[in-house]
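Standup notes
- DV: blocked on the single-chain target, sequence here:
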Amino acid sequence: MDRRTSKRIKEAKLKARPELSDSQAWYRLGYFDNFDISLDTVELCDNVERVDTSKVSPEEFVERYEQHYTPVVLTNDQADWQASYKWTMERLAKKYRNQKFKCGEDDDGFSVKLKMKYFVEYMKSSEDDSPLYIFDSSFGDHLKRKRLLEDYTAPRYFNEDLFGFTGERKRPPYRWIVMGPARSGTGIHIDPLGTSAWNALVRGHKRWCLFPTITPKDMLKAKPGEGWKNRDEAVTWFTYVYPRVKDPSWPKEYAPLEILQKPGETVFVPGGWWHVVVNLDNTIAVTQNFCSTTNFPIVWHKTVRGRPKLSKKWYRELKKSRPDLAAVADKVDLSQPTGINSDSSSSGSSSSSSDSSSDSSDSEDSRPKSKKRKRTRSLTPNGSKSRSHSRSRSQSLDRRSISSTPKNSR
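- DV (later): unblocked, structure below
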């Protein structure tokens, strides 16, 4: 690695994780040497059904899985993707060499970005405990980076995109390019606003652990002192919390689903499911949160409560384009709980490491606002770290995210 590359990486790390200002702090826990990334170990625990998209129709998928909020792994849905051969580290480093991608946020809410050529070199050589992770939602808005959109299509089960009725400029960010080395990942979280998600892995292997929405948050979080300054990182979760999950005393009603996601597989995460993901090698993926006809009643309920201004815009557009869904919205009883947790739920589901609700902090209601807010580090829908800060420039310049930063990495 040349001096310029090393300098740029060091600058990005300092901005994204200032609490690890001492360079040795990044590998103090020795996870490079002692964190288990064996594929065989994970595969033995994999207990999630595979669904061949070439044999199961969209109608069958909704009836058998989506309606029941059942996580599954999809196969044969990336066969015609150009990403399958274009998205290699070498080709991305060449084609998007000087394009900057987001790999974190600083304390003031500004995006921390690295040029692709630097990040690929970082991926090849990182020995950090919990490395930086590209989790970029703006690639589709950029003249050159939006070419990535030509390389894939949404799986046919997830073509419906009801937030699209709010318009590309008004809607929350909803798609992310995610890329990182072994041990990077997303901490335990629930995706916000009741949205479901799909995560399509093009390169590498990911380890997933998912829990029912009723699982108490306190049982799933690392305890104070565990993981040192990496308490909310995926590697810390698998090091300290996962052994407790596998203990015979763990309640059966909170039993986890486990996945070894392989190249070409797509994980379907229904709304409300807790999940944590760690990369086992160099990975490249694309992920998207969505609202469909199936989960619309719950997403509508949570959007009205957490993002009232957005919900009004959404409702006006649905009245014009999907009056059938506007009628469904009219019948949703907002006074009753949905039974599905999300970041805006009050009963134990927040992806914020400081226990503050991501959706609440991004809420557009009329309650009084203080002049200064406490800075908090929160997780994107896929769990990646972000920080919220009152009136930060990123809030004024960037579109609001479904997950308040964004959906990361989750």
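- Follow-up: Residues 344-378, 380-410 have pLDDT under 50 and may be disordered.
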